[in-house]
Write a structure and sequence with these properties.
The chain has 75 residues and is mostly helical. Helix content is 43%, strand content 5%. The protein has 3 helices and 2 strands. The protein has helices spanning 27-35, 40-46, 52-67; strands at residues 7-8, 19-20. The radius of gyration is 12 Å and the shape is globular.
Length: 75
């Protein structure tokens, strides 16, 4: 799946939750910001360490989870 390589899971970072590029940015936080009504541009302005592709990767990851497909099927 496109951008999926940006999602990392490391037991030493955020208790093993899926994160953006090994940073302490859990996917769930990105989805929460979007769900609260923040625009991608607002998120990027407030958090310059993130990239547009990180936001899209979070959405793609969430889509994979709710679709019932295993993440490793996307590879």
């Amino acid at each position: 799946m496109e951008f999926l390589e940006r999602i990392t899971i490391d037991p030493a970072i955020c208790h093993g939750k899926p994160c953006i590029r090994g940073m302490r940015w859990p996917v769930e936080v990105i989805i929460d910001m979007l769900g609260s009504g923040m625009e991608i541009t607002e998120i990027l302005e407030d958090h310059p360490e993130l990239e547009r592709e990180d936001i899209l990767a979070s959405l793609n990851y969430a889509k994979m989870l709710v679709s019932g497909r295993a993440i490793n099927e996307a590879a």
